[in-house]
Design brief:
8 strands; three-stranded antiparallel beta sheet
């Protein structure tokens, strides 16, 4: 991670330099049309800018940090632990079969029959995609004639 050589911050923005009007203008005056190409010299070079102090530098000019990232001191509470970036949110939820059967008017008849059979066999819960119960609730409140085919897995 790059560190600002001036203030030590790791709050760095990287971008490419664009066409230089000064170089293009001087080249155009001295060499005519071909001189305008001088403005493109160095246009693909990467420039790093510190977002805390505004210092601009090239890659390699800053320090490299192997430590914790720089956190500027401010009035906000600073977390004491690093957040778990790899934490995955669940895409499924466990629901009682009885809860799903409350929405039988908007669930496809074959799925209702399957849920009732599972309930008779003693299965109490199934796993459905997140938001499925909300979708059924909205569909039922809209009084539509549409029947939804829900997908579920038997909860073991």
């Amino acid at each position: 991670m790059a560190i600002c050589p001036k203030c030590g911050s790791s709050n760095i923005h990287a971008d490419k330099k664009g066409f230089s009007m000064k170089k293009g203008l001087v080249g155009g005056i001295l060499l005519g049309g071909y001189g305008l190409l001088a403005g493109a010299v160095g246009s693909n070079k990467i420039r790093l800018t510190c977002l805390d102090c505004g210092c601009q530098f090239k890659p390699g000019e800053g320090r490299i940090s192997r430590q914790e990232p720089y956190i500027p001191v401010n009035d906000f509470s600073i977390p004491t632990s690093t957040p778990n970036i790899n934490h995955k949110t669940s895409t499924e939820q466990k629901v009682k079969i009885g809860t799903l059967l409350k929405y039988r008017s908007v669930i496809k008849d074959s799925k209702v029959a399957l849920l009732e059979e599972l309930q008779e066999e003693g299965v109490t819960h199934v796993i459905v995609p997140n938001g499925e119960v909300d979708a059924l609730s909205k569909l039922q409140s809209s009084n539509g004639e549409i029947k939804r085919i829900i997908s579920f897995k038997i909860c073991k």
